[in-house]
Specification:
Length: 288
């Protein structure tokens, strides 16, 4: 049985841990509110931009930009996985890595070459240990706050790789924040632009372009790419804070339960020690 000193030391250590996890939970709760507001503000703009491009793409022909039409033969695909730089956020990164491995296995089974771009130190570390040959590029330590410049840096690299012919298709995987307790890995096609399927019976409108269709597409397609990456980074940030808040809340409760158990064990050991001392005193007095 541990000594009273060892139990006191352990109780103090667990109390310190509980204080840390409680503080981290409060910090994550404050951050997740701001991150969630940023995501909710960005979603409508990104959805509307995609809708406009979808309308334009419906009437585009073979002369449209390559970023819209894509290549006839897709041999090399890229998966951009957006995770976090820091840990202590539950199973967020492990779920993303698991979903990414399944996606990669499916594409490789179809005979395609898969390249991976990791966003976040945790995703980079996971891919280095499981898919070192496929890992092509990493973007890490991009700061505590998501900025549009970060999305531009990633989007410019992807566009350069696609334009040079190194990549034929690019997909983006990130954690979609369904609720404070649920973060679901989702995949969307970034390059070429995924044309939405036309609804049955929908009336197809013919837009008028000013100055020209080519000029509009050349401007909107890179902008949409930047915006989709930016929205995914915001989603990942909000999911990270929500997962960290949930994980730290669970850790705080577990620490409280451990303190109760250790306190009971300490009190029993202390009572046993006092009883033993009393017995020794009484036995000594009777011997005299």
């Amino acid at each position: 049985m541990p000594s009273l000193k060892a139990l006191r030391s352990r109780i103090k250590s667990v109390k310190n841990t509980r204080q840390i996890t409680k503080t981290m939970k409060m910090v994550a709760a404050a951050k997740v509110r701001r991150a969630r507001m940023a995501v909710e503000n960005a979603r409508p703009y990104a959805a509307r931009l995609s809708g406009i491009l979808g309308t334009i793409a419906g009437g585009a022909d073979a002369s449209a930009p390559l970023l819209l039409t894509g290549r006839a033969h897709v041999a090399t695909v890229c998966l951009v996985v957006c995770g976090s730089d820091r840990g202590l956020c539950g199973g967020l990164n492990s779920n993303l890595l698991k979903a990414a491995h399944q996606w990669v296995a499916t594409r490789q089974a179809a005979g395609q070459t898969v390249k991976i771009v990791a966003v976040g130190r945790k995703i980079e570390a996971g891919m280095k240990s499981t898919q070192p040959a496929a890992l092509q590029k990493s973007f890490t330590d991009m700061g505590r706050n998501v900025e549009f410049a970060h999305a531009q840096t990633i989007a410019e690299y992807l566009l350069e790789q696609f334009t040079s012919g190194a990549l034929d298709e690019v997909h983006l995987m990130s954690a979609h924040m369904v609720s404070m307790l649920t973060q679901q890995p989702t995949v969307q096609q970034l390059i070429p632009f995924a044309r939405p399927a036309a609804a049955a019976g929908a009336v197809q409108t013919v837009p008028e372009f000013e100055p020209s269709e080519e000029t509009v597409l050349e401007h909107l397609l890179p902008l949409n790419l930047n915006m989709q990456v930016f929205t995914a980074l915001l989603e990942s940030s909000a999911s990270e804070q929500a997962a960290r808040m949930t994980a730290m809340d669970s850790a705080t409760r577990n620490a409280g339960e451990m303190i109760k158990k250790l306190s009971v064990q300490y009190n029993r050991s202390r009572q046993a020690a006092i009883t033993k001392e009393l017995i020794e005193i009484i036995s000594g007095a009777e011997a005299l």
